[in-house]
Amino acid sequence: MKRVLYSLFLVASLMYAKDDGTIRVAGPVASISHPIFKMIDDDMLKNINKKIEFRLWQNPDELRAMILKKEIDFVALPTNVAANLYNKNQPIKLTSVPVWGILEIVSSDEAISSLEDLKNEEIIVPFRADMPDIILQVLIKKLGYDFKADYKLRYVPTPPDAMQLLLLRRAKHVLLAEPVTSMIMRKTGSFPISVVSPTLFRKVDLEKEWGRAFNIKPRIPLAGLASLGEVEKEVIEEFNEAYERALLWCIENPKEAGELVSKGIPSLTKEAIMDAFTHVKFDFKTAKDSKDELNDFFEIILEHEPKLIGDKIPNDEFYSGEGN
Q1: Domain 103-214 has CATH 3.40.190.10
Q2: How many CB atoms lie under 10 A from the CB of residue 255?
Q3: Domains in the chain: boundaries
Q4: How confident is the model at residue 191 (pLDDT cuts 50, 70, 90)?
Q5: Strand order in 282-286's β-sheet?
């Protein structure tokens, strides 16, 4: 009898949790997640009687678990991961693309200004065969070089591993993404690390190199927001509008944004978050308005590393998550 009562209580609790007026949003520590904390702080979905709850995902396995358990309504994630999940029949649809540039090569050599300058040089790259690595390889090939013969790409497991090599002068050039780039720039300028670490420079902007190589706008649709399951059209529209307002506030008030976000993600310093808002290329676009640029980007990825997007270009249904 106790087991029956417990089961009924559990079912009732789950039903209540699903319908309790809370919009659950999952995101990584990256800049794509940061405006969500302004949305929470200002109660930006109160017009539709919804509260927002943020849940951090730290790796793709955690994200997949959240999706499989139907724990979240929206998710901030790399666009290729969204495409990959969609192509594997997960109930995910893109709603917007706000982040179009986060990748830079940080160097201790002030003379470096382009990828050509790094020919025959060692470049430290975190996450082998992941999106930043593939973008770097595609760029090198597009510029007429062989990334194996003409460049020395040395892989490390994580960005902190790459940071350590730079700080200890065991590497000169490292591929990093914001806000990690801002964190390491801050570290090298502060005592006592400044005593032993080299002076570092933001030298090669990969989005600018992408534009130069492909003769297009210097930007890449890197990170977006997506809805999970059957989220109502009204909720999606309100969420998009609130996120865009929160993003603009963060861009205009980077110091205050840094203080706000660091409370929600203590592993990031408020100074690094503030700096990142001045370096990330933000441009809020709906899924529909991003479709052409995303498809062009996915076509390039499909040619070089198809598994990153699930071995095919997503169909039009993937872009229908914005509620239009």
Answers
A1: yes
A2: 12
A3: 2-101+219-319, 103-214
A4: low
A5: 51-56, 22-27, 74-78, 223-228, 92-99, 282-286
